[in-house]
Amino acid sequence: MKHITIKDIAKVLGISKSTVSRALSSDSQNVSKETIRKVLDTADKMGYRKNEMAVNLRHRSTKTIGIILPEAETSFYMKFTSMVQHLLQLKGYRLLLAISDEDFINERSNVELFDKYRVDGLLISTCHNKANYDFYESFIKRGIPIVFFDRIIQGLECSSVKSDDYKATFFLMEHLIYDGRKRILYLAGPDHISTTADRMRAYHDTLSKHHISYDPSLVIVTGTNEEDGAAAMTAFLDSCPPQEMCDALFCFTDLQAVGAKKVLEKRGISIPETISIACMSGTRMAALVSPAITTVERPMLKMSEEAVRLLLAKIEDINTPSEKVVLPAEMFIRASTRRK
Amino acid sequence: MKHITIKDIAKVLGISKSTVSRALSSDSQNVSKETIRKVLDTADKMGYRKNEMAVNLRHRSTKTIGIILPEAETSFYMKFTSMVQHLLQLKGYRLLLAISDEDFINERSNVELFDKYRVDGLLISTCHNKANYDFYESFIKRGIPIVFFDRIIQGLECSSVKSDDYKATFFLMEHLIYDGRKRILYLAGPDHISTTADRMRAYHDTLSKHHISYDPSLVIVTGTNEEDGAAAMTAFLDSCPPQEMCDALFCFTDLQAVGAKKVLEKRGISIPETISIACMSGTRMAALVSPAITTVERPMLKMSEEAVRLLLAKIEDINTPSEKVVLPAEMFIRASTRRK
DNA sequence: CAAATTAATGGAAACGTTCCCGCAACCGTT
DNA sequence: AACGGTTGCGGGAACGTTTCCATTAATTTG
Questions:
Q1: Do residue B128 and residue B147 come from a single domain?
Q2: Is there a domain that residue B1 lies in?
Q3: How many angstroms is C1' of D25 away from CA of B46?
């Protein structure tokens, strides 16, 4: 497939490629109207498309942003990406996407790939909290604009956006407690996710604020999927003596909650009468099941706006001071915690 | 941010950049072991990363594929993209992603952007069936490898992969009919989606095969979302005389089905006893609600494999004959059509 | 041991742009 | 009429690679 170049256009019109280049550029300075018309005409006729590779090489900038997602199971990251793409498009940037599948080896190689590709900046939601700290530290030192979103890495000298998980957890926990719940089973997220710690801290803090003693048997660390939630719930119900049964369930993700909910329903435990359910990391899924599940959602739109803003600021000037943006989450009280 | 180039390495080692380039290349022909070691060493020390732009320009190939999705609401496209990325990564390709948001103006400009970016090939699920037929026709003529997936465009001279919607619809409809359902309400998809026609045809054909007369009031053309499903269901229930009530619901997407199901439940209509529900375009959502919804799912994995295979074949040799792959869908009979 | 082959390297062109510089023609001003 | 400024254009270097070709040194071969 032979691509048309400005040289071809120049030859056809009997002018130099400098003039063609000028005529094709958006400001078109120092070219006669007549020439511009002719160039645009024949370019169109010959099916010319500017080779962005050459432009990038010459300009030493790609007008491309890389975004790295930890997974593509939940709708959150995808929608977030979609929003980011729109915002970036307006600013003349393209998006390069990679998915790490919760594997930090992948994440790392994705970052390196994008770097070789000379992306102007990186948007990252990491799968591990600590594992690649050193890696990113040296990366950032090399002067590459990076903004972490949603799942961030503590202590790095860079901008980030996340939702206020501590406050959100606190809110949901108090919501359960004010409803009279005292034995709140917590299906926690895996250690490597950065939000796990914040939420765990909030879980403890709410309990102690309300003078409820902490019972370690009520905390189960598990995966984030439906199956994980179902398995954890089953294990708990099977092993728990009746007098130690929980009266509420607090999940790390809505998928977990849906899985656990199915188990409860199968065993004839009524929701929310016997056990009420609330969860973090809500998506539309939480609203679609019935009873719909009380949840907090990450403020996707605001988050994408902030992420793009912070990244473009760093791209504009790498010495822009870093900002750690923490956004309030959106709360949705639904039937799973509403006694009839 | 000053990037290290092979020239810098050459200068440090006092050798020519040709030699550095050779040492850095994967086959490393005609370079002494000693030189290779030295080059690799200092490259690492200096933090060298190959500039892919320059490589692309020189090689006239970007090792990049563009994928264009119609939307990012449902998990299907995202997971599909994730699978495709994995497959392409193994072959040394990168993925560039764009989302058209069901707007063919966007779709078009996305294609043009990727073209300027000299992607080696394009993976497209289109939002409109007819609107941009001419556009793609001239595009394909220019010799750019394109494979359409899921939502294809009829009549184009190119490869494509889709699931067998006709057969799947037929199967689900017969499943309902064998259960004794005679008045099957069909929430159809919007006209512009390529699969709409196939499914509509299958709807008619199943009815006539089983000598059930077609009642136009049982077909409602609507959007694919939960809200669309709920609105259509409400409208039908409100306007339908009791003697003309339907005994089954057949939806275009699982989101529609979930929306409609909520309306039915709110009105105390029992599922599946009074009205059973089946739907096309199923995702995990259909399994998560209760009662879980009978559905057919597109064979994501197989589809992604085929799409990649077809595209790489075209990239390898643009004259590879086009293939129109039609894959059998996966059937999931669930509680929404299972009388207790 | 001379000739032929092979191995290791350097020089330079090319990929498709942009943009600086220089030149010529034209304009208006003094 | 001489001058400075503007306009329109062409030449050519540069961006960072790869790769062909030429050159030299080292090795094999008859």
A1: yes
A2: no
A3: 31
Asked whether residue B176 falls in the same domain as residue B225, the answer is yes
For nucleotide C18, the protein residue with its alpha carbon nearest to C1' is A58
Residues A44 and A100 in one domain: no
**A81·B96 Cβ contact <8 A:** no
Count of domains for chain B: 3
Instruction: Give the number of other CB atoms < 10 A from CB of residue B98.
Output: 23
Kindly report the number of other CB atoms within 10 A of residue A47's CB atom.
Answer: 12
Q: A69 pairs with which residues across the strands?
A: A99
A3 interface with B at CB cutoff 8 Å: yes
Q: Is the CB of A60 under 7 A from strand D?
A: yes
φ/ψ of A297, rounded to 5, equals -115, 145
Instruction: Say whether both A180 and A109 belong to one domain.
Output: no
Structure tokens at B154: 């009829």
A58 CA: distance to closest CA in chain B (Å): 9
pLDDT at position B245 is 95
Quote the minimal CA–CA distance from A211 to chain B in Å.
Answer: 36
Nearest to A80 by CA among A69, A94, A64, A96: A69
- DSSP H stretches of helix in chain B: 6-13, 17-24, 33-46, 52-59, 75-90, 104-116, 133-141, 165-178, 194-209, 226-239, 254-266, 284-288, 300-316
pLDDT digits (tens, 9 = 90+) for B62-89: 889 999 999 887 889 988 998 999 899 8
Token pair listed for B315: 């990239």
Do A202 and A261 lie in one domain? The reply is: yes
Residue B79, min C-alpha distance to chain A (Å)? 6
Q: Is the model's pTM score more than 0.90? A: no
Q: Do B136 and B221 share a domain, yes or no?
A: no
The CATH number that applies at residue A26 is 1.10.260
Give the residue-averaged pLDDT of B168-184: 96
Distance CA B10, CA B236 (A): 76
CA at B6, C1' at C23: how many angstroms apart?
37
Would A55 be classed as within a structural domain? no
Same domain, A81 and A228: no
Instruction: Give contacts of B75 with chain A, Cβ < 8 Å.
Output: 72-75, 78
Is B55 within a domain?
no
The token pair that represents A293 in the structure block: 């599940």
Q: At what angle do helices A33-46 and A17-24 cross, to 10 degrees?
A: 90
Domain range enclosing A266: 165-298+332-337
Strands across the sheet containing A159-163: A324-327, A159-163, A146-149, A121-124, A64-69, A94-99, B94-99, B64-69, B121-124, B146-149, B159-163, B324-327
Whether A1 is in a domain gets the answer no
CB A207 within 8 A of CB A214: yes
Residue B123: which CATH number? Answer: 3.40.50.2300
What whole-number distance in Å separates Cα of residue B279 and Cα of residue B173?
10
**pLDDT tens digits, residue range B280-338?**
999 888 988 888 999 999 999 999 999 999 999 999 889 999 999 999 999 999 999 98
**A141 and A101, same structural domain?**
yes
